[in-house]
Design goal:
Elements (H helix, E strand, L loop, with lengths): L5 H17 L4 H28 L1 E5 L5 E5 L4
Antiparallel strand pairs: 1-2
Helix pairs in contact: 1-2
């Protein structure tokens, strides 16, 4: 089984939020929907943190040497 893409996971999270906000789910369905939503939220957060840690910008220093710097420090 392949892992869902970030966009698919985010869409599933948004769908869970919409269902919960609708107020049309019974208690058991709402709890299951909430649990799935929490799992998707954690997965999205983890994926975003992984991407954030990989995003670096190459900067050319004097003398031609390359260094990396996290994007948030620019």
């Amino acid at each position: 089984m392949s892992e869902k893409k970030f966009e698919e996971t985010l869409a599933a999270l948004e769908a869970a939020v919409e269902q919960l906000e609708s107020g049309e789910l019974c208690l058991e369905e709402a709890l299951l929907c909430y649990e799935k939503g929490v799992k998707n939220a954690l997965l999205c957060r983890k994926r975003l943190q992984n991407v954030e840690s990989k995003v670096e910008i190459l900067l050319k220093e004097r003398g031609g040497a390359l260094r990396t710097e996290p994007a948030d420090e620019l």
